[in-house]
Amino acid sequence: MATKVFIVVSSEDKEVVKGPALMYALNAAKRKWMDEVKVIIFGPAQKLTAHHAEIQAKLKELQDAGIEIMACKAYADEWNITGVLEEAGIKVIYVGPIISQLLKDGWASLTF
């Protein structure tokens, strides 16, 4: 049974991102449902994150709870939002190899 989870947030629906995706991540970390939680902002969710202070604030709350937040550098560069995401405290890196390694290491994954 997996005790670590990474959550891929790719939806551009604000209610999905700030609701179930980030709410589960925060509760899984704070309530110790999982030993470790990571959030990967990917694809359309990156544009949403770059342009919504409310989502950026929610991600800061997750970071304060010890959750690592990262976003895909390829998409961020393509859409010229790398700087905005980094200013919001999000680690912008190529996530393909990271996702692959997490899966190889037995992490559970959720996608919203």
Protein model, in words:
By secondary structure, the chain is α/β, with parallel strands linked by helices. The protein has one domain (4-111): DsrEFH-like (Hypothetical Protein Ychn, Chain: A). The protein contains six helices and five strands. The protein has a five-stranded parallel β-sheet with strand order 4-3-2-1-5, sandwiched between helices. The mean pLDDT is 97.
- What CATH first level would be assigned? Alpha Beta
Number of strands: 5
Q: Count up the helices.
A: 6
Which class of secondary structure composition applies to the elements? alpha/beta
Biggest sheet strand order reads: 4-3-2-1-5
Cα separation of the termini: 21 Å
Shape: globular
- Measured by DSSP, the beta-strand proportion falls in 15-25%
Kindly summarize this structure in a few lines:
The chain is of the alpha/beta class and 112 residues long. It contains 6 helices and 5 strands. Strands 4-3-2-1-5 form a 5-stranded parallel sheet, sandwiched between helices.
